[in-house]
Structures are given as C-alpha cells and as structure tokens.
C-alpha cells in the first residue's frame, strides 16, 4: 500500500502560520478584552519550537518521515501554548516550596490567579523560614473572590515578597457620573460607567464625589443607601445626619461630577500574622477589597519602595480611568513587637488611611488595690505578660505606666460587664463576643488601674516605627494615623487629606492604642487644603476635654513645610515636652468653598477647635517653639 503524503502537503504554510500566530502572540478574549498570559515555560517552549520549526522548514529532506515530524511539531507548538495559558501561580509556588526551594522566581508576564489555595487566601506561606518570592516584574490578577487575601504569611521568619504588581478582577467598587440631584440635596442619581460593576445595592454605603476636571475628592465621604433604578443607574440617598447636619456649602456635588462607590465584602491583599522579619519590596497594589497590607502580632516588617495607587492607565478592561485604589487602609500594622519600617513608599487614592500603626486597649471593669479585672479586646491575656510595662489610660485622661506583676485568666465576660462596656465610648460591634468574650486578672507592682481605665501592654505596641520619604494622600481620611512611641516620620510628602494629614491620638471607639512618647516629625512637605496638617492630642475618656499634659511626651516637630487653607493648621495638646523648631507655615487659598465646615467649638476628634491661630497649643508643658 502506497503512503499518500497529500495531507502533509501544506505543512510549511501551516507550521509557519502557527508559530507566528499562536506561539508568539497573546490570545485576546474579544468579549471581556482580557489578555491571557503566556507563562515562562510556555514562552520557552514556543521559542524553542519556533527555532526548531525554522530549521525544519529550511531542511532539504523531502521524506515522508520528515513531513510527519513537521506535522507532529505543529501539535507540540499548540500543546506548549495551551500549557502557557493553564499556568498556575498558586501551584507553581506550592510545588517549589514542597521541593524545598528558598528563592522562588515567578515567570514574567500577566498571570491570572483563579483558584484560592484555601477558602480565605489565594497563596499561603506558613511555617516557613528564609524564603523569598521574587515576582520578577510579573502582574498577578486575582479573579473571582475579593473575599480571599492575595498572600497570607503565617508564623514565618525572614520572608521576602518583591517585584510584583497585583490587581483584582472584578475590582471592589463602581464609578461613574452624577446625572440628577434633589433640590434639597438629600439624594442624587448616578450612571455607572461602562466596564464597571453594576451591583450598586451590594452592601454599598461609602460614596465619594470627585471633581471631573482634576479627578480628586471635592468633599468628605458621604454615607447613605443605594437603590437600583436600572442595570446601570441608581439613586443614592444620604443619611439624615449627613443631609441635615453637614453644611450645605460642603455638600457641593453637581451634575457631571464623578462618583466612586465601595461595594460589600473584600479582604486584605497582603496579610501577615505572627511573623518575624518580613520584607515587601517593589510591590504595586492597584486594588484591594480591604487593606492593601495588614500585619498583626508581627515584628520587623519592612515596606521598601511599595506603591498603592489607582490604575489610571493599562487597565485590563476598556473603561474610564479608575478613581480609587483600595477600599480600606494602605500600610496597617497592629500589635507589633517592633514597629514597621515604611521606606520610600506611596499610598494615594485610598478609601481609608494611608498608614495606620497601633496596638489595642482592653478595659478595666473592676479594681481592688493593685489588682484589676480586665475585659480583653482580643484573646485571653490582653497581650500582657508578667514583667511588661502597661499603659494605663485613666478616665480623667491621665496616662501612667505600670509594671505587670501577674497575669491570669479570669473567665468569660459577664452580662453586667457587657453593660459596663456599652456605657463606654466603644463601638457596639466591638463590645460584644467574640472580640470581648474573655477577662483577665492583672496585678500591678507599682500602682492601681481604676475601673473605666483602658490599658495596653507596651511589649506589642509597635515601638520604633519609621516612615521615611514617600508620597501619601488624596483621600477622604488621614495620611498617617500613628498610635505608638519611638517613631520617626522623615521627609514624607502629603497632600489632599480630608482629615488631618498626620494624627497622633488614641481612638477609644475602636479600642486602638496608645499614646506617643519620643516621636519625631521632620523634613516633611504637607499641603493641608481641607483639614489640619498635624493633630496631636489626647481626650479624656468621656471626650469632653483634652487630657492633662503628659499623656504624650517628648514630641519634636522640626523643619517641616506646611501649606494650610484653614486654621489651626496644627493642634498640639496633652504633651509634656513639645519642641517646634524651624517649621515654615504658609497660608494658601482653599480649592473649594466651605473648607471650614468641620472646625467648630467641638474640642475632641479629628478636627481641632476653631481658632484664628495657625498653631494651637492646649494643655502642654515644657514647650520650646521656634517657628518661621
């Protein structure tokens, strides 16, 4: 039987076209406009097969065997391409770790990450030591679930994650323009831009309004409810508090303004727990359902040249440029033995604070001599052990530091103790199980903590944090919310904050501690268009007055340039040992009318009391001042 080579007659044409059109091109999905990525392995196979194909096509042999080889080669090229499209970053990292590799380098390109390693996290690094994940400049696009963290680092030591770009699909917010406004401004209607989520009733409540020309916030965050009118339109109705109590000149939305609306759910992008020695370097975060970075009970966490920003260009879907980056904080560190080091980083266009550093308070519900029964914020011991220094924040606002002699478990929180908690200035969702279900007995060596005091152990109080260089701001809240001692903020550039650019104060509402000792703010460039540039204070626990001098101690503010649109530009209260040296303050014109909306006779909170003074000092002792 004679073999018929006719089916292979066009092998040269088919092979060269396949190499050109498949092996070396990304395949586009015309519906979603998503570009599928070729993995390093797939690309390598394609390149190798391409070279082989070139050689085969140049081969002068005309045998049936050679034709068969060439046809089989076409199948290998297709297989290599399919392999590239099916590449799994999750499996790649897991297999490398299983093999004991310590330096894992990801393939270049855009990798679609669809299947989480666990229900709560796409990629988990647990019980590891001396491991580095080098993204090699790759972009990881996490698809499907915004309720799973991108990376979780649990109980590790000396971990590095670097050279990555991360994004979500879908992104956790929607945006568009305002099309209609009620005459009393109690509601407005919105049209969602093409390419953005249309589920506007999905737990949405935080609305931000942007100037359509400069694409920056033109008012504080607005709270309310949404009602879908059509697939791409909805009505946003403000809460009664916002509609009636917020001055009309700051309710400055107009038809044609842009809006951004956060949607329900969402997890932190990079989460770390109980890890010592963690470095994030050259990480770019374009979106997050929650915080971009959150570390809890860690130590020696470093952020080096990381960027959190909105994706203005190069989006994977054709749509208007994004208005927001993350739905919550940027760099958030809680209860660290040593505070974070944030070096030459950027955080902008977030829906909450750029930098947040704190530990947590527990509440004294009963006191007898030097012995106190404490309702614990988290866990069962208040994060305090024998020998620890403890901050005691008394009801009158005074702050003292005592030494814990003994710490023991005291059982579950009683109904009467829950009633006591509910009478304190604490958020209702915090003052209930499971967060405050346990109590501890703490005996102090050198003093008492009266009932109604808030206490925090200094062993996990983020002492020694540093924020050096970087750019922060353009958001509805604060650039830096710092509740720790031994910290340095040096050379940061801040602008566009609708709350104080730098705030140092405990917040009892969230039981976030603590007061600051030995803190330096220097060489910063702050443009405070809407709120105070620096606000350092401590309230009495009933929030009726400032604490006495000594709640904070030894604060140096030096060589900063501050441009301010309203006074006071800076508030310093409750400090023993305040030095203001060589700071340059310059008055500027506010970008919008009504920028004094939040300054009032109210003394305690994010905004200081009204004053004509650019620098307001209250309840301070040992003040040295040399401002320009």
Secondary structure blueprint with pairings:
Elements: H1 11-23, H2 40-58, H3 64-85, H4 89-98, E1 103-105, E2 110-113, E3 121-126, E4 129-143, E5 149-154, E6 157-169, E7 173-181, E8 187-192, E9 206-210, E10 222-230, E11 233-238, H5 240-245, E12 258-262, E13 270-273, E14 276-285, E15 293-296, E16 299-304, E17 307-308, E18 331-334, E19 341-343, E20 346-348, E21 355-360, E22 362-368, E23 371-375, E24 389-393, E25 399-412, H6 415-422, E26 438-444, E27 454-457, E28 466-468, E29 471-475, E30 480-482, E31 488-490, E32 493-497, E33 502-504, E34 512-513, E35 517-522, E36 525-528, E37 534-536, E38 552-558, E39 561-564, E40 570-573, E41 575-581, E42 584-587, E43 615-618, E44 621-626
Parallel strand pairs: 1-4, 2-4, 3-5, 4-6, 5-13, 6-14, 13-15, 14-16, 14-17, 15-18, 16-19, 17-20, 18-21, 19-28, 20-29, 21-30, 28-31, 29-32, 30-33, 31-35, 32-36, 33-37, 35-38, 36-39, 37-40, 38-41, 39-42, 40-43, 41-44
Antiparallel strand pairs: 7-8, 7-12, 8-11, 9-10, 9-12, 10-11, 21-34, 22-23, 22-27, 23-26, 24-25, 24-27, 25-26
What structural class should be given to the helix and strand makeup?
mainly beta
Would you identify the regions where 5 or more consecutive residues have pLDDT less than 50?
Answer: 1-62, 69-85, 595-602
Overall average residue pLDDT = 86
- Which sheet architecture does the biggest sheet show? 20 strands, parallel
Q: Determine the fraction of residues in helical runs and give it as a percent range.
A: 10-25%
- Termini separation: 102 Å
Based on CA inertia axes, which overall geometry fits? globular
What is the number of E strands? 44
What percent of residues are in strands? 35-45%
């Amino acid at each position: 039987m004679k073999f018929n080579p006719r089916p292979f007659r066009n092998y040269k044409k088919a092979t060269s076209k396949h190499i050109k059109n498949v092996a070396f091109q990304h395949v586009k999905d015309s519906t979603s406009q998503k570009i599928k990525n070729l993995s390093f392995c797939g690309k390598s196979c394609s390149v190798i097969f391409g070279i082989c194909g070139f050689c085969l096509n140049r081969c002068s042999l005309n045998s049936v065997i050679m034709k068969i080889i060439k046809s089989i080669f076409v199948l290998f090229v297709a297989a290599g391409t399919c392999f590239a499209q099916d590449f799994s970053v999750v499996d790649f990292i897991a297999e490398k770790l299983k093999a004991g590799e310590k330096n894992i380098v990801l393939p270049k390109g855009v990798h679609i990450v669809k299947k989480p390693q666990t229900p709560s996290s796409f990629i988990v690094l647990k019980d590891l030591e001396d491991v580095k994940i080098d993204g090699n400049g790759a972009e990881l696009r996490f698809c499907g679930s915004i309720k799973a963290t991108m990376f979780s680092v649990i109980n590790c030591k000396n971990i590095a994650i670097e050279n990555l770009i991360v994004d979500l699909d879908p992104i956790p917010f929607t945006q568009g323009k305002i099309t209609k406004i009620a005459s009393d401004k109690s509601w407005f209607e919105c049209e969602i831009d093409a390419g953005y989520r249309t589920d506007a009733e999905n737990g949405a409540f935080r609305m931000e309004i942007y100037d359509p020309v400069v694409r920056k916030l033109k008012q504080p965050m607005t709270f309310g409810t949404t009602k879908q009118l059509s697939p791409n339109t909805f009505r946003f109705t403000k809460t009664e508090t916002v509609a009636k109590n917020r001055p009309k000149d700051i309710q400055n939305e107009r038809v044609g303004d842009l809006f951004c609306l956060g949607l329900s759910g969402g997890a932190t992008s990079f989460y770390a727990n109980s890890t010592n020695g963690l470095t994030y370097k050259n990480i770019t975060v374009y979106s997050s359902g929650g915080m971009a970075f959150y570390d809890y009970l860690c130590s020696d966490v470093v952020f080096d040249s990381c960027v959190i920003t909105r994706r203005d260009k190069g989006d994977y879907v054709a749509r208007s440029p994004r208005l927001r980056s993350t739905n919550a904080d940027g760099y958030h560190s809680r209860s660290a033995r040593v505070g974070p080091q944030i070096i030459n980083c950027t955080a902008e266009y977030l829906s909450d604070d750029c930098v947040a550093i704190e530990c947590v308070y527990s509440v004294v519900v009963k006191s007898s001599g030097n012995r106190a029964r404490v309702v614990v914020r988290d866990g069962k011991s208040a994060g305090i052990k024998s020998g620890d220094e403890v901050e005691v924040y008394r009801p009158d606002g005074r702050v003292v530091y005592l030494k814990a002699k003994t710490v023991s478990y005291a059982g579950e929180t009683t109904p009467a103790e829950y009633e006591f908690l509910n009478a304190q200035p604490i958020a209702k969702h915090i003052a209930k199980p499971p967060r405050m279900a346990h109590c501890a007995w703490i005996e102090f060596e050198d003093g008492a903590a009266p009932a109604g005091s808030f206490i925090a152990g200094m062993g996990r109080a983020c002492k020694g944090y540093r924020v050096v260089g970087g750019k922060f701001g353009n958001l509805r809240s604060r650039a830096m919310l710092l509740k720790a001692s031994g910290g340095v903020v040096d050379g940061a550039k801040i602008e566009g904050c609708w709350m104080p650019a730098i705030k140092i104060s405990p917040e009892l509402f969230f039981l976030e501690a603590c007061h600051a000792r030995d803190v330096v703010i220097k060489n910063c460039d702050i443009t405070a268009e809407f709120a105070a540039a620096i606000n350092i204070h401590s309230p009495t626990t009933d929030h009726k007055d400032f604490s006495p001098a000594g709640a904070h101690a030894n604060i140096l503010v030096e060589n900063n340039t501050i441009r301010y649109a309203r006074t006071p530009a800076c508030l310093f209260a409750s400090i023993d040992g305040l030095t203001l040296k060589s700071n340059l303050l310059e008055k500027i014109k506010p970008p919008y009318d009504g920028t004094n909306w939040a300054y009032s006779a109210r003394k305690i909170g994010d905004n200081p009391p009204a004053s004509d003074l650019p620098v307001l000092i209250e309840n301070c002792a040992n003040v040295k001042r040399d401002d320009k």
